[in-house]
Amino acid sequence: MARIGILGAGALGLYFGGRLAAAGAQVRLLARGDLATLQERGTVVLLDDAGRHELGPVGAFGRSGEIGPVELVLVALKATVAADLPGLLQPLLGPDTAVLTIQNGLGTDELLGRLVGPERVMGGLAFMAVTRTAPGEVRCFHPGSVSIGELGRPPIARTHETAELLTCAGIRTQVVERLDEARWRKLVWNIPFNGLAVAEGAITTDLICADPALAARVRALMAEVQRAAAAFGYLIPTEFVERQFHVTPGMGAYQPSSLVDFLAGREVEVEAIWGEPLRRATQAGVAMPGLAALYRQLQQLSGRGGA
Questions:
Q1: CA nearest 117: which of 89, 142, 80?
Q2: Which of 75, 65, 70 is CA-nearest to residue 104?
Q3: CA-CA distance, 290 to 216, in Å (whole number)?
Q4: What is the tens place of the pLDDT at every residue in 128-169?
Q5: Is 78 designated active site?
Q6: What is the DSSP letter of 268?
Q7: Are 92 and 69 in contact (CB under 8 A)?
């Protein structure tokens, strides 16, 4: 039975934790606001088109020191809590512990590599629509899939073993050869939809798609990401880009994670999702005027921009 420590009981932490526990893994969730509910119930509630499911058992703890060493750490925290990571991670690490991050944006894999050693680090990208709806409860709008890869090297045996673990938990998973390329692919959706949902008046993705002007802006931002990725040798097919747009209306009135954070008064991952890609593209000589404008909007809305 795999021992898995999950840092963060937000939407993805709950979803992955519940699925893995139901598949037989020994799941230990680091939780804060949801701690009492998870400890009392011992399960994660999943809501989807098929109804209500209680998934478990899961253990919930308020401090990572109470969890102890595990075989796999799943980092489901926001990139904005980078300063807290060293203290949270250290108690979970044994000699052979692997660390898989499903954080958004660019730079999170490298940060973890500096903290725990690059040989421990895998990166994961969740192409799915899930939202935390109550303490210990998550709603799945679109199950999608997960892509995982190694930091700075091709897949190894443990990459495939981790993918098999997730697949057995009902999470469709694929192994990618180049993690950085997968991250740029994820930004094709994240940059426009997470960004515009916040910048255009706290609106859901269905409203963005239905507005011709906003839909055109989405497509322009997607094209910029495609061009920037190409500068690093990552050729994202136009068919992939189009699919990211066309799958979105089917999610309904979906609030992307950045909008959920913004409405809750939490810090939005402005630098990881918009700032770092813009900086890397600029250094590579690729102009991204649409992203630059959106980044400025989000900086101002988060109180970090200039006049």
A1: 89
A2: 75
A3: 11
A4: 889 999 999 999 998 989 999 999 999 999 999 999 999 999
A5: no
A6: P
A7: yes
Same domain as 102, residue 35:
yes
Q: Is residue 12 domain-shared with residue 86, that is, in the same domain?
A: yes
Q: How far is CA 3 from CA 99, 146, 186, 251, in A?
A: 12, 20, 28, 33
The verdict on 120 and 217 lying in the same domain is: no
Cα 142 from Cα 48, distance rounded (Å):
9
As a whole-number percent, the residues of the chain with pLDDT over 90 amount to 92
Work out the mean pLDDT of the chain and round it to a whole number. Answer: 95
pLDDT of residue 295: 98
Residue 48 sits in a domain whose CATH number is: 3.40.50.720
Number of domains, the chain: 2
- Name the active-site residue from 120, 186, 217, 280: 186
User: What residue numbers bound the domain in which 253 lies?
Assistant: 181-301
Q: What is the pLDDT of residue 59?
A: 97
